[in-house]
Design goal:
By secondary structure, the chain is mainly β. Helices cover about 10% and strands about 30% of the residues. The structure holds a DNA duplex.
Length: about 200
Amino acid sequence: MEAKLDRSFFLRDARVVARALIGTHLVHVHGQTERVVRIAETEAYCGPRDLACHARAGLTKRTKTLLGPPGHAYVFLIYGMYDCFNVTCRGEGSGHAVLVRGGEPVSGIEAGIRCDGPGRLGRAMGITRALDRVDLTGDVLFLRARAKGERPTIAVTARVGVAYAGERADKPWRFVDAKSRHASRPSKRFIGRGG
DNA sequence: CTATTGATGGTC
DNA sequence: ACCATCAATAGG
């Protein structure tokens, strides 16, 4: 079993963390059940100057976690129905976070349940706002490193659903495992690759 | 395959 | 009023 990602992993720019998270395993332990998904799609949100980032609103009830210490879960409700899982990063108060948008079920998830799409992933993994502010270096919700030597091919695109964010809307801050079929959108939108 | 629409709730 | 979504439905 690969090592749990520690605090130092999260103390970096959201764009760096977002890319590094592709291919890692997200683990949620709840009682006897352990659910694991391999992350295939992420997006970076880069603080108050990024109009697509919730940190643009400043310190509010919701953004308290986002503006809190790195390496914690930031879980928020979108469209009244779906819990979106994010990882806080860079530094306390920076407002940097990575939205995990999709992945491939590994274990503990009922056969046929898909994890592509932020809403589906949250639901399949049993992640709700009750887990907001949970420390990701703990034993309930955490990440495990990629297998040694694993170097996924990563495609880079603009983020989804942020057309309102002006100049920042077109930034290539979405990262997808190019070989995975478990991203929320098809490859035709890819505008580059790397990693 | 694409396009459209309704469900739903917290923040601003 | 807005929104970092999804499922069901209708149409080509």
